[in-house]
Amino acid sequence: MRSVQLPGFAMAAGAIGFGCASLGSRVAPADGVRAMAEAHAAGVNWFDVAPAYGAGDAESILGTFARGRRDQLLICTKVGLAPPQRNALLKSAYAAARPLVGALKGLRKAFRRIPATRNVAVPLTPALLVESLERSLRRLGTDHVDVFALHKPVHADIARDDILQALSDLRRAGKVRHVGVAGDAHAAQLALAHPDVYTVLQLADDPVDQPLRRLQAAAAGRLSFITHSVLGVDGMRERLTQALHAGGAPAVRRLTDAGYAGNAEQTVSQLLVDRALAANAGGVVLMSMFSSKHRAANIARAEGKVRPDAIELVADLLADGGRAAR
Ligand SMILES: NC(=O)c1ccc[n+]([C@@H]2O[C@H](COP(=O)([O-])OP(=O)(O)OC[C@H]3O[C@@H](n4cnc5c(N)ncnc54)[C@H](OP(=O)(O)O)[C@@H]3O)[C@@H](O)[C@H]2O)c1
């Protein structure tokens, strides 16, 4: 797989990183460990996790996988969101529903809409940062993380002196190699004002508004970008599939000429992954890829050449589809 050298990182990162949000909730622990091992064998070495992921179990499961391989992995964890409060009940519900939730998209969406499945924001204090990191390190079975990021922070917290100081202290102590902000585009924008502390910015890669482009220009190659929500911002995959249908034969021909083949859903997924890899060519693109089909498809895109033309293809398809719908 293509690898990227992020500024300040000793080890190169695979262009696609493994998103662990569903590890331990939708995805059973043993299946998750198997999927991560297969991805790692194919060149994936960036693993994105958080205390809240997998209803609170993702870090421990990632820790199981990392045993004996820690020095080959780059791990990003976060602070600021806790798993849902009625967690014991939720975990049994996840375990019971797994066979169905894995298979039925509608049921997965319904699960996410239930308030009891939502993570809970934890007010940030210097003490909380230290305690949360210590708990994460214990669960992950490691003495340091490569990135420690504020998870969907309240915007005002990003510039708080006590928070900046606590994060710098953790880095100086060697428990954290890089400090980041994992939130919305505005949070990333605010973090840019503190490049001495925040060197990793994680955000959704929205192909319409393209906040990443503006942030990359402002960062001028000094910061690392980690992007996610490649298929998903506001149902982007469905929108693009509709745009492809609306665009008719000329739209299909343009994609076929560009080498995209298969059914509409596969074509659109390939195109969006290529677009995300091209838009964040110097960074890491996070994907959930627990199913072997998705894993193979996404890794294959990261093994090919970067396709800057995918950025324009997506933009044109959306614009043409919008015009056809009017
Ligand atoms: N910082 C934040 O606030 C934040 C927010 C959201 C996400 N994230 C991180 O980003 C990671 C990815 O999250 P995401 O929301 O962007 O999810 P995603 O990668 O778009 O995955 C969403 C769903 O799409 C499926 N999928 C993956 N590749 C596919 C393909 N080629 N074709 C069709 N379906 C495919 C996945 O299935 P399978 O997994 O079953 O294969 C999953 O069910 C998370 O796990 C998390 O680590 C961070």
Automatic annotation (TrEMBL):
Matches recorded under Gene3D superfamilies: NADP-dependent oxidoreductase domain
Any Pfam family the entry gives: Aldo_ket_red
Highest rank taxon of the organism: Bacteria
Chain ranges of the NADP-dependent oxidoreductase domain: 15-310
Stretches of the chain forming a coiled coil according to its record: none
Name of the protein in question: NADP-dependent oxidoreductase domain-containing protein
